[in-house]
Amino acid sequence: MIKDFEYDVIVVGAGHAGIEAAVISAKMNCKTLLLNINIDEVAWMPCNPSIGGPAKGIVTREIDALGGIQAKIADKTMLNVRMLNTSKGIAVRALRAQIDKYEYSREMKKTLQNTVNLDLRYGIAKELIIEDKKVKGIITEMGIKYLGKSVILTTGTYLKGKIFVGPSFFESGRMGEMASNNLSDSLLKAGINLERFKTGTSARVLKRSIDFSKMEAQETAEEPLSFSYSSDGKILDKGFECFITRTNQETHKVIRDYIKFSPLYGDIKLISSKGPRYCPSIEDKVMKFNKETHQIFIEPESRNSEEYYINGLSTSLPLEAQMKMLKTISGFENVEITRPGYAVEYDFVLPNQLKYSLESKNIDGLFFAGQINGTSGYEEAAGQGLIAGINSALKIQNKSPFILSRSEAYLGILIDDIITKGVDEPYRLLTSRAEYRLLLRDDNADLRLSKYAYDLGIISKEEYERVEIIQNNLKNNIDRISKLKVSKELVNEVLEKKGSSVVLGGVKLKEILKRPEISYSDVKHLDLVKINNKRDVEQLEIFFKYEGYFKKMIEETEKLFKLETQKIPEDLDYDAIFNIAFEAREKLKKIKPETLAQAIRIPGITPSDIINLGIHLKYI
Question: Is residue 465 in a domain?
Fold first, then answer.
């Protein structure tokens, strides 16, 4: 008889969340087990094979700054990369890359199998072992028992997953793989509340059947780019362009003609759960929005595959309808479908049952990360996995949890949003969710977060010293240029060339750099110490051009920090506080915020409720 296996951390699911959780806990000296249904398809991309985009690209860089691996593997395997929103403000810029999905998975598997303290194994978790409200391990479908000090569930869409193509449906976590049908029952038995969400994906089509000449090409960037701050930016080879085409009224007519066969809109409605608002199916777009046309993107999946992904055409219509619909679109007249689009419905955990460490409030040592928390997206999942992995290790080491605030990282916003506001649809990060997005930029995630990774022992002294050099250079350059005064004759020569208003007397160089039309390269000859490093120049220009905005935001974050330090006892009796509203009392009892700042952000909590709560806690 096989004896029980013992670990510090057990991670269930080797998707984007599970991988980050497992690698980071192993880096923090925890003996870690990572279980997956198919260990040949770890970090798989069942939907769009891309990393990044608005807000999401910044999350990938935050993961990198905190010692995660998504950015580095993306850099190794990208086919096409671009910086988005370059014509807009610095707060919304972000990298987005088309990824070779097969290479990405292989590189991730190689990384996992070469990580010290980490075992990657096949297994389907069937049951949690829980004693006295504390998790002790899991039992697999094969009856193998794994004991652990903590368990992190990152099950994606596998919990009672069900796939729909038209009126046909079957149990599956994603196309071609088994669902996990018993773990949900174990969670319910443990008192964890579950609900169901729906998501979906598009058909894959054969390259030789596409007429790209009828589409608009999107080339990869001509400048070197990378997600990881430690990677050298690279210029990618041509030949893996993305393309743009559009639906039309004929396309929409096919959809309406077949809508009665849709599991979402059909005569027999098979799916009642909500899908992602910001990534709707083509059926939703046509039925809910009265638009003449919808833009879609045609994107390569791999260097070694002839399949292309259709971004923006997620569907669960029957295969016949999918084929007819595609053939109405310019460039797809002779298209061949290799895999149909489909919808998938799955169980998820209501995230208001979690602490900010992503540990269950009710089951000690049980953590959740990724789509199981009601979120969507590879980047959101990976970020949660990283935080859950860090906190799982810290708990085992009897250390305080690692919690990021909304003013420090998009990861802090993500976790705060899903816990305090809850989710009524799959959650997606957006730049509009960030009050302090000017501080949470693509260019400075390492400057914001690397100190945490160093203090946690995740990154080396040498890695952190690289960040310190950038920070010291910025401080020295700011101090020097703030004092440097230049004559009106020299500076007006530059201003006249740039079409900028001239000055009437000598002026400090920093005042000239504040002007949006003036770059450091325009006035470099006026600087006594020439700055040649691109990153140093970028940080200097950003500082002076946005200095006033930064000052206001930092003042606001300092006020927020004060509220974040005002703790609320976990066992506080809200029923004993008679001067807060009934609705507020019920929400506070349900969510159990950890600080006054978190309580403020719960929908339905009024300022007077907070004042009375603060008075009761003797903070006011």
Answer: no
